[in-house]
Design a protein that fits this description.
alpha+beta, transmembrane, nine-stranded mixed beta sheet, 204 residues, 2 domains, PH-domain like, transmembrane helix, membrane, single chain
């Protein structure tokens, strides 16, 4: 896994942020070298070395209503703000042209991290344990509240209070929303991965 010496630079145009509040993600050209990653954000530029990289977290991110799943890579360093690299457009929506660029960036990033650094870097998938527990709590609330509402609608349909056709739309909406929450929880499940076995189920 040790990168070859004098490997050419690799450049990728993607949307990025540093975790701060932004209405729109920044557009940036990310340059990977054998030493680290270089980019410009808010007028700040410079090489962020792999020797200072502490963790890489890959996440699936919902792209919005009727949009496919997007992905995000969070790079945390020993000093300075983290770097968030997105597969989406700067506004967070689906942009199919960016998906292969994001995947190529993630693959090249892992290829270039020296073996000595890869041995200590944490390679994480999904969200943090704490955030995942919050998501699970939301799921339980959904099942209790909306599951009861769905059961009530079905009961009233069976006793003839609500016509079958009027029942279909609200029940379908509840089922669809419940499936979306369940899928979000499953994709966000925290874990680890090996740098030579990327979690491609999280890719856009």
């Amino acid at each position: 896994m040790e990168p070859a010496a004098n490997k050419p630079r690799a450049q990728f145009d993607l949307a990025i942020s540093d975790g701060g509040m932004r209405l729109k993600l920044a557009e940036a050209r990310l340059t990977l070298t054998d030493e680290g990653i270089d980019y410009t954000l808010d007028g700040r530029t410079g090489l962020r070395a792999f020797s200072n990289l502490r963790s890489v977290r890959l996440q699936a991110v919902h792209g919005g209503k009727n949009s496919p799943w997007e992905a995000m890579a969070e790079l945390s360093f020993g000093s300075g703000k983290p770097l968030f690299v997105h597969s989406s457009s700067p506004w967070g929506g689906d942009d199919p042209a960016r998906d292969p660029v994001f995947i190529a960036f993630v693959e090249e990033l892992h290829r270039r991290i020296p073996a000595a650094d890869a041995a200590r870097i944490r390679f994480l998938r999904g969200v943090s344990e704490g955030r995942h527990k919050v998501m699970e709590a939301v799921w339980i609330v959904f099942l209790a509240v909306f599951g009861g509402a769905g059961a009530s609608i079905l009961y009233k349909t069976l006793d003839g209070t609500i016509p079958v056709l009027q029942m279909l739309f609200p029940v379908a909406g509840l089922v669809g929303f419940g499936f979306w929450i369940h899928q979000s929880i499953e994709k966000a499940k925290p874990g680890v991965y090996r740098p030579d076995a990327l979690p491609r189920d999280l890719f856009p």
